[in-house]
């Protein structure tokens, strides 16, 4: 195993034109908890997570992915990563300094190779959280984020070489070639994945539920409420996690999941999974078929935030 500077995924931040509708969805329907609010800005926590927040929603004239945030172990690690990225010619949005969002901490921001804003921080104050109870269908934590890229091989190489993410598995087919790469920064099968898409955008953000029963209760609650379901319920082969994908009010795909695989990194070898086989995309065979319509929803709209840092 390598000594990584990035330890885990913290939060995903979204900007949208209809702030109130987006906020209400993530609170009233998705099950997140507001922890700090001001005009046009809300920070939402997951009840079972020590992270200050797992989603931030900001009002903006254009829909965009504001940033993806990761944790680091220490100030020394934050400084070392910023120095490494600078040597590689990566554009820093901000130098390492005090973080000005709830929980504080020490961190910096930069543009990844596709132009997304990425934040790395340490010493963020731990939020007082709680055990999610049996039958309680609210997210325990943010599980992972999947990102679309028109040049995914280049993006995967960036996260590997610059940020020490390691490949867990790859989805491929004889007709389309490789289409998704699952990358880890800890023993969890993936904290991010890179998908081949027509443009830079958010593919989906995934939230871990307490268990299978809570995952199904949450999926059923959204389906009964008429929230657009893209795909599921089912279980993937890569990562062995359950999945149900829905659309938020602005067309971002969000997922309820559970039981994402924990790897023995010393012995793990990446697989090539042929996703044209139905059992690869859904081991159970319970989800609606993976088809072009499902894939199209996951392409999302082109990201308006490419190489443009968010104002907050």
From TrEMBL:
CDD domains: BphC5-RrK37_N_like (cd08362). It holds the Pfam family Glyoxalase. Transmembrane segments: none annotated. SUPFAM superfamilies: Glyoxalase/Bleomycin resistance protein/Dihydroxybiphenyl dioxygenase (SSF54593). It comes from the Bacteria. Residues 8-123, 141-259 form the VOC domain. InterPro entries: Glyas_Bleomycin-R_OHBP_Dase, Glyas_Fos-R_dOase_dom, GlyoxalaseI/FosfomycinResist, VOC_core. This is Oxidoreductase.
């Amino acid at each position: 195993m390598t000594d990584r500077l990035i330890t885990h995924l913290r939060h995903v931040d979204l900007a949208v034109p209809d702030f109130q509708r987006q906020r209400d969805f993530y609170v009233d329907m998705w099950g997140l908890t507001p922890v700090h609010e001001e005009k046009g800005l809300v920070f939402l926590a997951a009840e079972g997570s020590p992270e200050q927040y797992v989603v931030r929603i900001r009002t903006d004239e254009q829909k965009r992915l504001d940033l993806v945030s990761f944790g680091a172990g220490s100030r020394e690690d934050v400084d070392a990563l910023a120095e490494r990225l600078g040597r590689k010619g990566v554009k820093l949005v901000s130098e390492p300094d005090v973080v000005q969002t709830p929980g504080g901490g020490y961190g910096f921001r930069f543009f990844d190779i596709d132009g997304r804003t990425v934040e790395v921080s340490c010493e963020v104050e731990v939020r007082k959280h709680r055990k999610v109870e049996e039958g309680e269908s609210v997210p325990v934590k943010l599980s992972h984020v999947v990102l679309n890229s028109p040049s995914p091989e280049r993006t995967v190489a960036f996260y590997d070489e610059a940020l020490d993410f390691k490949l867990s598995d790859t989805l491929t087919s004889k007709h389309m070639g490789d289409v998704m790469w699952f990358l880890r920064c800890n023993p969890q099968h993936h904290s991010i994945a890179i998908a081949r898409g027509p443009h830079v955008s958010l593919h989906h953000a995934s939230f871990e539920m307490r268990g299978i029963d809570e995952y199904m209760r949450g999926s059923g609650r959204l389906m009964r409420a008429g929230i657009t379901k893209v795909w599921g319920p089912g279980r993937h082969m890569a990562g062995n996690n359950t999945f149900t994908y829905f659309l938020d009010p602005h067309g971002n795909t969000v997922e309820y999941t559970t039981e994402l695989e924990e790897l023995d990194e010393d012995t793990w070898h990446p697989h090539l999974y042929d996703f044209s086989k139905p059992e690869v995309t859904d081991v159970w065979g319970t989800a609606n078929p993976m088809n072009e319509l499902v894939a199209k929803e996951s392409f999302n709209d082109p990201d308006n935030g490419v190489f443009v840092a968010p104002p907050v």
